[in-house]
Amino acid sequence: MATVSEPRRLRIGVDVGGTNTDGVLLDPLGASDLTKGVLAWHKSPTTADPSEGIANVIEAILDKAAGVFGVDPARDVAGVTIGTTAFVNAVIERDDKRLDRVAVVRLCGPFSKHVTPCVDWPVDLRDLVLGCHALVRGGLQVDGELISNIDEGEIAKFCAKIKVLGIKAVVVNGVFSPIDTVERQEERAAEIIRREIPGCEVVCSKDVASLGFLERENAAILNASILRYAKKTIRSFQEPFRRLGLDCPVFITQNDGTILSGEMAAKLPIRTFSSGPTNSMRGAAFLMEDNQNQERGGDGQAMMVVDIGGTTTDVGLLLANGFPRQQAAYSELAGVRMNFSCPDIKSIGLGGGSIVREDGDNVTIGPDSVGFSIWETMVFGGNTLTATDMAMAARPDLYDLSLLREQPVASEEKLAKCREIIKQKLEKIIDTVKTSPEDLPVILVGGGAIIAPDELKGASQVVKPELAQVANAIGGAIARVSAVVDTVKSTEFESTQKLVEDISQEAIQKAVAAGALPATVKIVDIETMQLEYIENKTRFIIRAAGDCDFFRTDHTSQLGQIDLNKDQVHKDDLDSTGWSNSTVKPARRRQTPETPEIDRILTYKPDVRNRVWYISETDLSWISTGCYILGTGGGGSPYPHMVLLRELLRAGAVVRVVNPHDVDDDAAVGGGGGAGSPTVAIEKLQGDEMMQAQNELYEICENRATHMIALEIGGGNGLQGMTLGASTNMDIPCVDGDWMGRAYPTKWQTTPVVFNERSPIWSPIAVADGNGNVVMMPTASSDRQVERIMRAALSQMGSLVGCAEPPVTGAEMKRWVVEHTISQSWRIGRAVAKARLLNRVDKVVETIIEECGGSTAARLLFKGKIVGVERTLFMGHTYGELIIEGADVAETLSGAGTSNTTNQFKGRRIKIPFKNENIAAIRIPDAGAAHSTEEVKELEKQEDVLAIVPDLIAVIDAQNGEAVGTPEYRYGLLVSVLGIAASDKWTSTERGIELGGPRAFGFGHLRYEPLGTFVKPVSVIDEFDREVATDTE
């Protein structure tokens, strides 16, 4: 331990859980000792006022250390790090005493007007948190150009309303604010608000999360709502320290395993929401380090951390860089979709308190548990048989069984069955989290680790380290400091490598500014993504991390202190802000879906009257899910478009869909949709550009549309025909069909161009950016020229536009249309919804196949885990290749044991090349060899082709049944690959195969062979028309 003359170096880590508060006193210089530098540890019940529990734990560990070393260690403590669930629990519990109402100021100009703040929140939470909002001038384009400048008077006027409502928390969210380093619009708006409303809290969205307008805004609103409570809580954490003689900064652990100063955590409490699992992972890894291990954060080995509690087992992958693998782009908390960084943790209903049941020869364990009621277990004299009872009974040589009831817990046969079930469950969840077939070390932590076996398939070793029961507190004590830079830069005049170097230095400087010791800071993660349809633009996400510099002279002002004299907190204040009388809550028990919800889904019938389908919110939800699956990886996520159309429905809009065969031959069937970069689409939400393009088109096109049709059913454009046709827009019905039957990357890859009855089809055309700029093209020499010219204009119009296509006659539409694709999307979405409600997502692909015409028309091509993704950009399109390694994903996800189905995909690999959309699914005969492009083509044999365009190849998330778009492909994701036979509008002619087949994508060395026989989708209108039903009664 440090002497008086040595610098302070001891660290205290505390984890405040729902049941227990754990603490450790750690000397980093002793990390190579057998004790791992842990001088003392303590575990005690969490108190109603967590600050009391924290004080109790810290006092206990200081007393223990003083008893051992004979010296009061308090003066040698350099810092205290606390992990807590207090803030996230306030949101989950909808506590109006801890959550404040929030005003939202959007700097968006004409965009996002149809999707208001908190639009996709649970109603009770939205009503509790959202006070008011305003959409004002401001925002940037992706290239940094202004959408519009902010208007100080406009913001000041809204501040007057905020003051009248008594709201003291405000969020400012600007379009592309995370890349705004020049205009600083959010910061300038925040200054105006603080001036107009003295004493209010202002949160700039760019400080909370990155690109993704709605998700970043959601996170910022939750952050603002919890601010007051967070500040009081963190001050309460600090209050006991001076009483205990601790004159040191206080830090709070955040989601990625690093620390925030108390001051920063009080400003950004949302960054702590998922810190608990991360602390356990980091602590477990620290306990595994041997004497000669490399400095943390350097190149090491990835490892699995299995945290077994009383009710659940949480498993995560700790990467070689020392940080947990993070979730994909989006996460969800309390029903709110967000995009801030969270660890990728998989959980199953298995813990030490899991209840064991026997029904004849069948033995089950969990998912329900005795939770914190440990006195109910047999080992403590109760009557409930649990996994812990079984584990202890199986090892009488290790455990004192005197507390067990006199009768035997179970027969040897039953004990063996339980051991095997637990082993299989753990092996399957471990395999789910792994990203490669190689065995990895598995570290067992948590109070329930007693139930785990000493050997597990897929584990190079299984270790239950000493002090595993306080791994979470240890993880807090060793946490580091990190910083992330997420920005978009031009590569026109500087190379990507040079930009990576510059941004890396920026990330390092940012980490040092946050409190990292300069000599220890390293780059731990680099991600680059070229933006589609945007010339010379690349998104860079770079993370730096280093050890905390506890000895900086600016500890008090920068790192860890909040002024305790300001708004001094007393116990009465804490009670009034929402501390519950007991923080210990019963464990949540898994429940089957409520019968009314199942019945509603299983018995739901769409509203079809007189051959017109009136779209409901249920219909829309299912159609949206189906559209993304039919998008074959492209088309962009339908989510923001679904939210927009749902809001129209809630506002009273009527959306009608008609059968294409019911349309008169002389009708005028118009079209429209969006074009541009998916990256821009998630940030610059739709304004009026779609309708503006339509209005401009009919200034030069005399034949106004009487009906609308989607350009493509795949992705977000699959909903545009219904949105444009809504009664609040053009008020015309949408045709149940589209021009692709899927998604394709270009406008000339459409069935009207395939039929080639006249050319060009797609002029005149109008393109609008929603910000006052319109491009008209009255004539064109060909449809390919329309595409080229529109793409050129796109880059100068914000990289996201609305297009209006000229109408075709009803007779032409009936010859060219891919029929009933809205119906097909609806049926696919219904299949996914049913699978989720009945907990049969493992069979969702098989259900979708039945909806698409059965096994002759669609096929399960592959199941497995993504183990490789490569991307590049050419002529505005994203090209790449996906590698999937075979696995029985149903067995892997369930963790229930060996599947009865044959593991037909194990040991095999396939690749899926894509150009925005998936092109083919091809077996890989030699997975290990590296080859040039030409050699790869030589190796791609016709007999290895499982499916190829124009047939549809969809990658589906095996955990939720949703489509996975090409921008969302990532390592480790469990997926199923679905093949669907393309419409005969593509496959019945050589021209169709030429425009939509392999040669159009540069795969001329492979030929199209249909995977099955196309079956026309069944019309929802034909099936559910009430007029038909009435006539037959």
Q: Would you write up a description of this structure?
A:
Residues 216-391 form the Hydantoinase A/oxoprolinase domain. Residues 782-1011 form the S-Me-THD-like C-terminal domain. Helices cover 31% and strands 23% of the residues. With 1033 residues, the chain is an alpha+beta fold. Strands 23, 24, 25, 26, 27, 28, 29, 30, 31 and 32 form a ten-stranded mixed β-sheet that branches. Strands 33, 34, 35, 36, 37, 38, 39 and 40 form an eight-stranded antiparallel β-sheet that branches. The protein has a six-stranded mixed β-sheet with strand order 3-2-1-4-9-10, sandwiched between helices. Strand 1 (10-16) and strand 2 (20-26) form a beta hairpin.
Q: Care to count the β-strands?
A: 40
Percent in strands: 15-25%
What does the main sheet amount to? 10 strands, mixed
Give the rounded overall mean pLDDT: 83
The radius of gyration is: 30 Å
First CA to last CA: what distance? 89 Å
List descriptors:
40 strands, alpha+beta, eight-stranded antiparallel β-sheet, 31 helices, 1033 residues, disordered N terminus, ten-stranded mixed β-sheet
Task: Outline the secondary-structure elements.
Blueprint: E1 10-16, E2 20-26, E3 38-45, H1 50-69, E4 77-84, H2 86-92, E5 102-107, H3 123-129, E6 130-136, H4 152-165, E7 169-174, H5 185-196, E8 201-204, H6 213-243, E9 250-253, E10 259-261, H7 262-267, H8 275-288, E11 303-308, E12 313-318, E13 331-333, E14 336-338, E15 346-348, E16 354-359, E17 362-369, H9 387-394, H10 412-433, E18 440-445, E19 459-463, H11 471-477, E20 481-490, H12 496-513, E21 522-530, E22 537-546, H13 555-560, H14 571-576, H15 595-603, E23 607-609, E24 612-614, H16 617-630, H17 639-650, E25 656-658, E26 668-676, H18 678-681, H19 689-700, E27 707-710, H20 720-725, E28 734-738, H21 751-755, E29 765-768, E30 774-777, H22 783-794, E31 800-809, H23 810-816, E32 818-819, H24 821-837, H25 844-851, E33 858-874, E34 877-886, H26 889-894, E35 909-915, E36 917-918, E37 920-923, H27 933-939, E38 945-948, E39 952-957, E40 974-980, H28 984-987, H29 990-996, H30 1020-1024, H31 1026-1032
Parallel strand pairs: 1-4, 4-9, 5-6, 5-7, 7-8, 11-18, 18-19, 25-28, 26-27, 27-28
Antiparallel strand pairs: 1-2, 2-3, 9-10, 11-12, 12-15, 13-14, 16-17, 20-22, 21-22, 23-24, 24-25, 26-31, 28-32, 29-30, 29-31, 33-34, 33-40, 34-35, 35-36, 35-37, 37-38, 39-40
